[in-house]
Prior knowledge:
The chain is mainly beta. Helix content is 12%, strand content 41%.
Amino acid sequence: MTNTILTTKINPETRIKPLKNHWLANLSLEFSDTPVGTQLTRTQRKGPLSVQKAFYPEGKDCAHIYLLHPPAGIVSGDELRISVMVKKNAHLLFTTPGAGRFYRARQDLSIGDSKQTQITQFDLAAQATCENFPQETIVYEGADGFNSVDIHLTSSTVYLGWDITCLGLPDSAQPFSQGKYSQLNRLFCDNKLIYHDRIALSPENQLLNSPAGLAGNTVFATFLAYAPAQLTDIAMRKKLVEQLREQISQAEASDKISITEINGLLVIRYLGQHAQQCKRLFIRLWQLLRPQLINKTAIQPRIWHT
């Protein structure tokens, strides 16, 4: 990683010149703390991205939002850009009603590029709280996908978020072997980069089966937790990590989950074969983290049970 990293925030109003057989979509959301709680106060959209109204299963102070993408998957030429602003004192829980999908890319490049792209950005103002829990992303055999998430926050905000990636459909005898998939996750605090994680899978680099890569596993996932104001000293963070590891030990999943604390950022990784197992484990850890970092019991979005 170089010492200087240039970042560009998403501007949903930027006009992107359409390319041949490209479907471009932008969605920009803004959430504000109001006298009646956290409200969706601004929406801009273009193309097949939208949200339902906010839901409040735990009261007015936390808005649950479901991201909707009616095509239900990303094909060659698609470029989805999602920008979410959580303003001062607002609290957002952001999820999706179902799995995201990167379908098989087109083979005939004479009709357009093969690339499939999703770019997501979260901006958190002072004292804002954001929980970003999308359902799993399925990457089909032959895909050519790029997925990135940038999180911009301050030292007084709280962020909890995960991503779960499933390669191919091995239970249906459709393994992921010839596709390409790149993922980039970055987290900035007060404009300083504190986390940068990138994986690029392709038939050429053999990361799918390499012991230094995925070692033949088809599901990989990361759960990030950052709350500088709540985790003020090293001893407090160490104790929390011990509690998380105890939960994993009780679930007999120590061979699937690793937990690391990096300068106040908790990085929890899963490597295995089952998305639902990963999600159950992540929810279990969220149920421990949420009361300590947000002072609220973990209330699962209703859509997860349908």
